Every structure is written in C-alpha cells, then in structure tokens.
Amino acid sequence: MSTELIAKAITAIAFGIVGAIVITPIFIFLRKLFYGPFINKKLVEKAKAKGNIVTARLIKHYDQYDHSGQFSRTTGKEIGVYEYEVNGRKYKFRSISINKLPEEITLYYLNNPRKVSFAKELYVTERSPWFKSFMAICFICWLIAFICLINMNI
What is the pLDDT of residues 116-129, one digit of tens each? Predict the structure, then answer.
C-alpha cells in the first residue's frame, strides 16, 4: 500500500468525522421533530397495555446551584428525587423543574424499570433505528470523501 493511499485514507477519515459532526445536530432535530411526537403515543399505549406504569413519591428536593462564577447562586430550578417500586425492588428517579415539584408523579417504562420517563418523553428511552441510520450516513460521508480523494490526483 502506497504512502499516498494511506494519506488519502486518513484525510477521508477526517472528512468523514467532520461530516458526522455537521449532520449530528440535523439528525437530532429531525428525530425530535418527526419521530418523537408520532411514535410517543404508541409507546405510551404499549406501556399501559403491559402495565408498565409506576407512581413515584418525592423523597427529597433541593435547589440547583450554578457554580460557574466566583459565587454559587441558585438557578431557580428545583431537583427532586423520587422513589418508586417495581416487583419489590426500589428505584430512584431525578427530575428538574422550574415549578414546584409535585409529591407524586406517574412514570412509564417499556422494558427496563430503571429507564422510566414521563409520558411525553417516552420515545427517548426507546430503541430506534435512528442510530443505525445515523451511523450508516456517517459511513457514507466517509466513503464519499475517500472516493473523491482517490479520484483527485493531488
């Protein structure tokens, strides 16, 4: 393998990484905009059908502080630690809110009781084909960069 080919492969990998960095926010935006709202209703119904609904109780809460400056100050947000029980085993869930934290909240999960979330955010914990699609597009970016560099006689 020639040194020129190795240099082009390394450059193509770098272009592939840059391409992946560029398309990552686009992918996240598209997933939030198109995938989340449409699939979330089905996931909540699926969790209800399986009986994967838990009620969590607030066990402690405290203010969130910003320690970035010389002095630490409160951000106006409260962090609440909730506890819930599934099959005799206790789990904890943390939630951040700008409003007063409720004493009880209803949480949903699909398969793993550790991965609970609110009903409107259930699609975040669900495995989706989006990651595989993202990796395929990153590979395609790398492949295109590699082919372009091979065809260019630099």
Answer: 988 888 777 766 67
